[in-house]
Amino acid sequence: MAFDDLYQEIILDHYRNPQNFGEVYHSCTVVEEDNPVCGDQIRLMIVVNADGLLQEIKFKGSGCAISMASASMMTEAVKGKPISTIQRICSDVIGAMRGEKDPQVLENYGDLVALKGVIQFPARVKCATLAWHALEDALKEEAKKFTR
Length: 148
Description:
The chain has five helices and three strands, in the order αβββαααα. With 148 residues, the protein is α+β, with helices and mostly antiparallel strands. The protein has a single domain, classed as Alpha-Beta Complex (Sufe protein. Chain: A). Strands 1-2-3 form a three-stranded antiparallel beta sheet, with helices on one face. Helix 1 crosses helix 2. It is globular. The mean pLDDT is 93.
């Protein structure tokens, strides 16, 4: 199986069987983002515990296979991790997708390596990064709770 085929299979698997898809039914930080160009929408819900770990993350939304798969892979990559680690992962993924970082960095993050296949389609990069921008915004909202 060629790498491009493997990347495509990972994306399709996450699209068909999204991880952490659903609602958080208790107090959480909620962010909604959309990509009006292609119609992708995401509602991201996070819960950060007192130790600064991402205790819970869920998403709802609709969109293309790339945007939904990226959201699923993102939740798997960051759940249970400290905020500082999550911020580094966000920076690496968004940077790699925009061509600001070496795409090889994605190989450090499991299934996220499949996003390397999206880089060659610039029009789809916004689809792949939508959930990541939502996560960055949610972390900023979460930080505001502790600076008040």
